[in-house]
## 1
Amino acid sequence: MPGINQLWVTHCSAGKNPIPQGTPTELYRSNRISEFISHCSGRSYAWAILSAKYSLFFPDEKRPNYNVTFKSDVNTKQCMVIKDGVSLSAEQSSAWIKGLVDETKLKMNSKGVRSIVFWPGWSYDGVDPLKRVKCYLKFLHAAVDSCSIDHLSWREIVDHIRALRNSGIGKIDLIEDLP
């Protein structure tokens, strides 16, 4: 089985269409995601949405609508899961994220994914877009690069991902703009 040499990924969004279920194209109403899907589809790139609920959400999958996201706790720097507007406990959040890591590994193995190109979206208000997606990067990095380090800042995660990639060990390319 040939597998997917390079999988293009962006993170999910809170903006979803009011439908009970759908594919990523049907479910998300974010301009960022629409542009990402259009970019990838127009170039025949394999792609998926990195979902706080479903891990890698592929275009051929139909899933129930959901309301799950992440928030980084400013005091502990831990990634917290927000489900249906309610913050899960630290223990529940850790278990949720571990489940996402395990599911991401399974999906990558089943589809033969060898590397990831991750686009965090646009920069606005002078904030680095990678800073806004710390928790998504944290679970993606743990799953794809098998990293067990508990990186406390978004900068630590980004630097480690790039160092691993530059050394030839890492499997994630972080891109700033869609080429």
## 2
Amino acid sequence: MPVRVQQEDFDAGIEIDRLRRAAAHVGAIAAFIGTVRDQNLVSGEYASVTGITLEHYPGMTESALEEVRVQAHERWDLIDTLIVHRYGELKPQDQIVLVVATSSHRADAFAACEFMMDYLKTRAPFWKKETTSEGSRWVVALASDDESAARWEKPN
């Protein structure tokens, strides 16, 4: 399945190799792995992060991620894509997300991978609660994340 939302960790090497071996005409693979940082900006200052909790609505989340994956295939000449996103309680250095795009040429793979990640950072139906040295707080997308995602908007 090209979209998975799961609690358990993933092996990026195995996932990428599976996509690479699935089609002999794969000439490019772009991948992004997001991990939990041990610090984050809180009120303009860095605070130590001891963990995060990711919540989602089963069914709705998978559908939303599948839709962005389909959009990537409509925009670029791709062979395959994969989105794996974790939920539950995670600690610093834990993997959160894997996004992979394969194509015959690198430009399409890079663009699709970046497009899918920008969507995940700003619009995917996940709720992230971060526990820091300053207490717990819900995390919202940064203005810079919204700016990155806005470049993919199609003009009306």
## 3
Amino acid sequence: MSINKVILVGNVGKDPEYRKLDNGVTVAKFPLATSEVYKKNGEKSSNTEWHNIVLWRALADFAEKYIKKGMQLYIEGKIKTRSYEDKDNNRKYITEIYGDVVQLLGKKSDHTEGSETPNIVPPQAEEIDEIVPDTGPNDDLPF
């Protein structure tokens, strides 16, 4: 058995790009920045990582309505890497976080004013890909 799970708390880098595919499925994509602060030679330093977030169906609809640049989010999901060919036929790889749970963080005033913004969106049963256990070779490993 293996696990692919990621939990991120960070700030949205730009407003989500929202699309409706030919089959009617909706998708939203946006960058999320996470930062860590540490001391180096007695001075505070920070390192920022950028994550490509992908939300599908109801979560994509939620993102279109409520998620904006600068907002702080909690996201649970899984890491996926895919490849594509650029215009020069070079193979490129991109790592993305497919979100299953999204929660808005920060002050209530940071969210859309004048409306009741949901604070958390759990996964919908019909939106989760079926998880199939790995039936690879039995290695007889001691752990």
## 4
Amino acid sequence: MFMLSAIAFFLFTIIMWFAGNCILKLYHTAIQKGQILDQIFNWQNMLADLYASEKTWKNNLGKALGDCPTCFAFWFMPIWYVVYILLGKKLEIWLINGIGWNILWYIVFHSIGAVVGLSFLLTKKKDGL
């Protein structure tokens, strides 16, 4: 029985990595100049204002909100991890018990998710697709 639970947990994890990084890619595309979230919220103007600020925390916030793909992918994963853990517990397939194991699993999930997310963001669209 544990083996089936472990397989379900790891399949769920892979699906959540993929889904989260697809959402990350869509969101990052939507905030680019002239795209829907930029048109609605003037996202690129906000990023330019944050980047032009002399305050370090505003510069860092701008990076996390889309000015830097690495920072954007890095800061998206903690938010996605919360969704992942809540959904895993709701579906009753969460296998990680104990604070130490949860911290270790967070590090694994975040590291892999952020690197894959960054590769999603840096992938260029080919002509004709």
